[in-house]
C-alpha cells in the first residue's frame, strides 16, 4: 500500500509503505493511482509531488508471484497482462499531473518499478544501495509499448537504451548520473531525503500554474502521450 501526506510547503509525499519489495500487484497499483488522483484534486499553484518508499526496494516490479499463483499458465499470462494494463493509467497520471514530480529512489528500482520512477520529472537515488534494472530481457518478457515509449522519451542516448533494455545492465547511482538517467546520487537515505525535499521546495517556490506545467510536459513527449492516449492542449486559456 501507500500513503499520501501534504507538507506545509505544498509538497505532496507519496510513500510506498512496508518493508517488502513493493511489488506492483493490482492492490498496490490501485493504491498509487488513488493517491495520485487525490493529489491532483488537491493541487494548487506551486504544488509538487515526491514519491519514495520504505525499506530496501523502491519497487521490484510487477508481482510475478501473484501472476504465477494462478491455476494455469494462460491465467498466469492473463494476470500479468492485467498488471501491465493497470500500470498504464499510473504512468499517464504522472505524465499529466499538474505539478512537478520527483522520485526519491532509496533502493532497487527494477522493471515496472523503474518505469514508475522514470515517469517522474526528476529522479534522485542513493549511491550506496540500489540499482536500476530492466529485467525483461533476462526473464524472457517483451516490453509493453508504453515502457519503450517512456524510455525513448526520457533517455536520449541510444547506447544507454541498448545497455539497459537489451543487455539488462544493472546501473548504480553514480553511473546512472553519468548516463543521464537520474539527476543526482546521494550517499545515504538522509541526504537523499534532504536533497529531494530541497528540490521540491525550490520548485514549489516558483508557484507555477499546474495546468500549464502539465501541458508543457506533455508537449515534450508526443510519442509517449500518443501511446498513453493523452491529448495535448495547444492553445491555453488566458
UniProtKB/TrEMBL annotation:
Its EC number is 5.3.3.8. The keyword Calcium does not apply. It catalyses: a (3Z)-enoyl-CoA = a 4-saturated (2E)-enoyl-CoA; a (3E)-enoyl-CoA = a 4-saturated (2E)-enoyl-CoA. Pathway: Lipid metabolism; fatty acid beta-oxidation. Pfam families: ECH_1 (PF00378). It is an enzyme of class 5 (isomerase). This is Delta(3)-Delta(2)-enoyl-CoA isomerase. It comes from Populus euphratica (Euphrates poplar).
